[in-house]
Amino acid sequence: MRVYPTRLAIGFAAAGALPALAAALAAPRLWSAAAAWVLLTAGLMLADLLLAAPPSRLRLTARPPVALGLSRPADLPIELAFEGPGPRSAEVAVGVNERLAADPPRQRVRLEGGRAAATVRLDPVRRGEGRIEGLWARWRGPLGLVWLQRTEADPRPIPITPDIQRVKDQAFQLFSRDALFGLRAQMETGEGGDFHALTDFQTGMDLRAIDWKQSGRHNKLVAREFRTERNHHVIVAIDSGRLMSAPAPRGSRLDQAIDAGLLLAFASLKLGDRVGLFAFDAHPRVSSGVVAGAQAFPLIQRLAAAIDYSSEETNFTLGLTTLAGRLDRRALVVVFTDFADPTSAELMIENVGRLMKTHLVLFVVFRDEELEALAEAEPVEPDDVSRAVIAAGLSRQREIVIGRLQRLGARLVDAPSRAGTDDLGLALIDAYLDVKRRDLI
Fold first, then answer.
1. What are the φ/ψ torsions at residue 236 (nearest 5 degrees)?
2. Domain for residue 353, yes or no?
3. What is the pLDDT of residues 203-219, one digit of tens each?
4. Fewest CB within a 10 Å sphere: which of 154, 249, 318, 323?
């Protein structure tokens, strides 16, 4: 609760101050007139306070969204309800942290029967955890001399993730069970399938699915149906260190990795696999354990929103060793990372090699757009030649590292330069489905 004077009260006090001062200067024995004016003003303000609806009788509530996706604003409904008579109008204000923008930040509402509703649009500015740091409502007394204010705070974070609705729409359109494996049950075949049942052979079915022995017994063509093998463990491991957090025109590599990782997690959960999220920089930051079922996706979504940008160098030894220690069975580990120098690349290769002794590693490599641009740029000045030679040398070092990872047996998804997040997500899903078809996990 907070009480303070309005502009009217301040103007009223100032209006009487000058005449009272002039009277006191002209006739010192009338100095008490100034004190009387101050007491009159204070008395009117006290009367206004006693006549006004007290803040204790106000119920101020807001219903923030469970989560927000970037570029998808959401409404924040606010309700004011007085127990008993209330003021005619009130002002409502919302304070948010730097990851959100509130529009409008302050507005006036009219109350009817002591109740009013307001709506504020929350616009996510940056991925992370948004917070409503304060919710204020204030109203004047019947004389208009004092403001009475009620403040509420909601400590619950609002996860701000990549555009989740777009991820879900894309997954439903392109990566639903029918889109991934075909409309017919016999299309769910491959080295990762289990025999499910027999069915009459129909035109368009794979001839290899025909069971000739059963066909001879039934005097008609009979085909085998297969059920796709499920319950694999898929771990999305994201490097959140300095190189991944560097800003870029399409968003940082970290944002692209989280977007593609969420798409993979959503498709994997829909296909019956178990999914875990792990993030690390100099230390492990996020570890979800494996979860199953499409209903577990909001948990992955909230944890992904908690992966913050970091200025620390990535410790591959600590991060990947910690991850390996938390896996109790063979899993598909999808690693999103980047490297800049041979030393960090050597440490990364060493620890990935240890991880591959037990698990299948799918490595997502981000190309360096600046290096490619410098290496491909037409030289105009002598310095341009030097830059191109150095950039070409660094690019060759990256190719050497990629070659070593492939020789170790890691499967690579090479994120093309200037490709969008959708392209990366499609390439990642294709690699994941190829792993399932070949039963490599």
1. -95, 105
2. yes
3. 766 677 788 888 888 88
4. 249
